[in-house]
Amino acid sequence: MPGLTVRPGPVSGMGATIETTNLDNLSDNDFQELREALYRHNVICIKQQKGFSSRAQADLTRRFDPKATSYGHGKTIDAKRSILHPDLKTVPAHPEVQIIGNGHIAEYEGLHDFKLKHPHHRTFHKSAIPDELDLDYTRFYRWHIDAALFGSLNPPLVTSLFAEKVPAGRTQTALYDDDSDQSLQVPLGTTAFVSSYTMFDLLSPAQKAFALGTKVEYAPHPYVWISTAKSRQNGLGMVSEGLETPVSDLPAYEESDVQILPMVWQNPVTGQLALQIHPSPVRKLYCADGRVVDDLEEVRRIVYELQRPGIAPEHVYAHDWEEGDLVLFNNHGVLHSVVGAFREDEVRLFRQCNLAASKPPMGPEALA
């Protein structure tokens, strides 16, 4: 793959396309070009990869972090109460690779006669689009980082998504359904991405200073904790109604399992700064002046005000999937969301792979 040809996408700094069919024999130089492209464009799509195996996907994903070993969520998705549990099926031969999608699958990757369910906002949001409008309109399900945010599982560096089967033929209108009247026309079953570098750049000087000096504490067993609560209608964080699972009802954990991460993460290639927060399971903020914000409604208000400008329609890259697409994204520099509502006969079959990173995110102190 000499002289990698990278075609930038329509959203600045995000969504480049690479035309190649030679992923099975990447030299070290080719891989370094690929890595450079990823960290400069943050979401890259390598076209025409039909037949790309789950093993090859796991190997390529691991190449970005050779010391990483386990799936990004470890065994935490095994908890039946986790909001992630219904959405994933594990490839038996490669447990770091998950199968996601929609519809009945007769056989795939050693599994037989199973059904996939595409996440739908009605199961997670405070309110839902009326059923009669469901196939024409949709929402961003949950803006998030791929990360367990718990225990020793560091947020994965890179996630890979492979499109085996893609339903086609129609688009939907993604509604924000907040006080903005914003919407975005999107391909059916798109994956939507926003740049956390853009999110940081949009902050005021005072907001940037606050973000640079603040750390975020995530809830223990975060995806069980939020499983009984509801999301904002634009998918950017939770509504505060006191419905979170009480800490006393969560599975057992040690205080050392609770993750506290910088609010700002640094790009290892460009040095850019990302406002990188998973808004749903945030619990406390530790400020540079020693103040601790532990009122949950206030924590969510602060985070929302920082992040909301960055998900405006002009900043969203909605990938238009084709069968054989392999998408890699910089999980330390973007947020992403499932989008879409399918008919039962619309089959979507994808594979996802990410690995818990071998070290924590690089915070802004790395600039010193």
Automatic annotation (TrEMBL):
<dbReference type="InterPro" id="IPR042098">
    <property type="entry name" value="TauD-like_sf"/>
</dbReference>
<keyword id="KW-0479">Metal-binding</keyword>
<keyword id="KW-0408">Iron</keyword>
<dbReference type="InterPro" id="IPR051178">
    <property type="entry name" value="TfdA_dioxygenase"/>
</dbReference>
<dbReference type="GO" id="GO:0046872">
    <property type="term" value="F:metal ion binding"/>
</dbReference>
<dbReference type="Pfam" id="PF02668">
    <property type="entry name" value="TauD"/>
</dbReference>
<comment type="similarity">
    <text>Belongs to the TfdA dioxygenase family.</text>
</comment>
<keyword id="KW-0223">Dioxygenase</keyword>
<feature type="domain" description="TauD/TfdA-like">
    <location>
        <begin position="14"/>
        <end position="351"/>
    </location>
</feature>
<keyword id="KW-0560">Oxidoreductase</keyword>
<protein>
    <submittedName>
        <fullName>Putative dioxygenase</fullName>
    </submittedName>
</protein>
<dbReference type="GO" id="GO:0051213">
    <property type="term" value="F:dioxygenase activity"/>
</dbReference>
<dbReference type="InterPro" id="IPR003819">
    <property type="entry name" value="TauD/TfdA-like"/>
</dbReference>
